[in-house]
Amino acid sequence: MRVGQVASATDTGRKRRRNEDSLVVRPPLFAVADGMGGAQAGEIASRLAAEALGETGGGATAEEHVAELVQEANRRVYRRSHEDATASGMGTTVTVALVGETDVVLGHVGDSRAYRFRDGKLEQLTADHNLVQELVRDGKLTPEEAEAHPQRSVITRAVGTDPDVDVDVQRIAAEPGDLFLLCSDGLTDMVADADIERIVADSDGDLQGAADELVALANNRGGVDNITVVLFELAGDEAEQTLADVAPPPDEAAVDDDDEDTLTELDAVPVLAGGPPPEAPPRRRRGLYLLGAALLVLLAVAALTAWEYLS
């Protein structure tokens, strides 16, 4: 199985000063990490995890490989949180996908999610590790009650908060044409699965357009958290992958150095970018300007010499 088209988008959202999400787009490996912690600790945690996930690792099987990548991410975040007092208690979610010959292996900790889109239907592949979803699985809450529960963002499992972490690893059978979505909860808290399914279905193969539209919709509905989306499509072995098929990860969002994490109402107003800078004159035109200036100087010198002679 080969990776075909790839797209990604990440955004700070309307209420946060910093983007504490990180992503990995290194086919055949993809990942999303959503950091948590005071000051800049969440940003540090997700970045450390993404760096660990983006490195090659060992493992006799793909499942072992993915599990070891997440464990390495856990070690790095945990070590930093104990070496740096300002990062104490930080952690991050991790959802990683590794594409194989006939399947995709997922590794998962936290409440970022992985979905598969096939035959027009969106299917959630990961189970959220948060308090509310565990209550739903135990039958103590209905899915409808969970959507409005005040503790729906309380994480029960994260990378970097303990010396070891329990990683959910699963192998998903894959077919050419399957589309996979990895995302942080900044998307799924704002946009229902039915809307995600509709946007992907209506994208007509434009994955970057779909990723941008998902982020925009999450922002239009409040954008209370950072939003990150990674989309990748699977193709048959006969398909030839080009660099144009693989979109580079977006630049990290510019962030404020202020320790406060929540924007005021005024700060939340989006800044409109200005127009492009004026173009410099073409090189040939600049040469003509210089030539004209030189002629004027020569004429002035000649006039001054003639005036002195006549006087």
Structure notes:
By secondary structure, this protein is an alpha+beta fold. It has a single domain, classed as PPM-type phosphatase domain (Phosphatase 2c, domain 1, 4-Layer Sandwich). Helix content is 33%, strand content 22%. It is built from eight helices and eleven strands. The protein has helices at 41-53, 62-83, 131-137, 143-147, 185-188, 193-202, 207-220, 283-310; strands at 2-11, 21-26, 29-36, 91-92, 94-99, 103-109, 113-118, 121-124, 168-173, 179-183, 227-235. Strands 2, 3, 4, 5, 6 and 9 form a six-stranded antiparallel β-sheet that branches. Strands 1-11-10-7-8 form a five-stranded antiparallel β-sheet. A hairpin with a 3-residue loop joins strand 5 (94-99) and strand 6 (103-109). The longest helix has 28 residues, at 283-310. The protein is globular and about 50 Å long. The chain starts with a strand and ends with a helix.
